[in-house]
Write a structure and sequence with these properties.
The protein is about 40% helix and about 35% strand. It has 6 helices and 9 strands. It has helices at about 25-35, 75-85, 100-110, 130-140, 155-160, 175-195, and strands at about 1-10, 15-25, 40-45, 45-60, 65-70, 90-100, 115-120, 145-150, 170. It has a 5-stranded parallel sheet. A 4-stranded antiparallel sheet has the order 2-1-4-3. Strand 5, helix 2 and strand 6 (about 90-100) form a beta-alpha-beta unit. The two termini are about 20 Å apart. The model is unreliable at about 10-15, about 35-60 and about 190-195 (pLDDT under 50).
Length: about 200
């Protein structure tokens, strides 16, 4: 989870200020101890002369999110998985990698639809990606789908977006940062819906 730490500090220019820093809970105690022990630290680009107070405001457990990644290219699957794990740390991610539609549908059945996001290619060695997407939308309409395909130009991605078959579409090779941001936005939307 994450914790918010408030620091009342004095810089080398004798200016007092309040800083708020969000830290992963696993690093919070260690970081606070370091801040208290050091006479000089650089926080948010400012060299600190004194630290007067360190206050732990709140601690929020990380919510678990499960992603089903259907991708037959092992290199692409590894890139997506590692990028998500490294960049999205506000959630506890479980990423299930499957090489084709059949194993993807089997995992969905085993999880009884308890998946937060599906990311899939359109062409699979076993089964048809488009049919996989349609089945997912029919049986599990609550699960958003991201399409990543090297042949996105060969399908009517706009029609799929407008008909709500998919939430986002990326053409390979895609920008990893944009992909990660799309996943984060989907998770944020789910949080807003759940809390309303």
């Amino acid at each position: 989870g994450f914790a918010t730490v408030v620091l009342e500090t004095e810089s080398s220019f004798c200016m007092r200020s309040i800083s708020m820093i969000a830290l992963p809970c696993t690093e919070t105690l260690k970081t606070v101890m370091i801040l208290c022990a050091c006479k000089r630290q650089v926080i948010l680009g400012v060299r600190i002369h004194k630290i007067y107070h360190v206050i732990l405001l709140h601690m929020e457990p990380r919510r678990k999110k499960i992603i089903l990644l259907v991708e037959d290219c092992s290199n692409t699957a590894f890139l997506i998985k590692q990028s998500l794990l490294e960049c999205i740390r506000e959630y506890h991610l479980e990423i299930l990698v499957r090489p084709d539609s059949l194993s993807g549908l089997k995992t969905l059945d085993e999880k009884q639809g308890d998946i937060d996001l599906i990311s899939t290619d359109i062409y699979h060695p076993k089964g048809n990606g488009l049919r996989f997407i349609r089945v997912c939308r029919e049986v599990y309409p609550h699960i958003p789908i991201i399409l990543c395909s090297g042949r996105a130009s060969e399908i009517d991605a706009r029609e799929m977006l407008e008909s709500d078959l998919i939430r986002k579409c990326f053409s390979k090779p895609f920008n990893v940062k944009e992909y990660v941001q799309a996943v984060r936005e989907i998770f944020l939307a789910q949080k807003i819906i759940c809390s309303s």
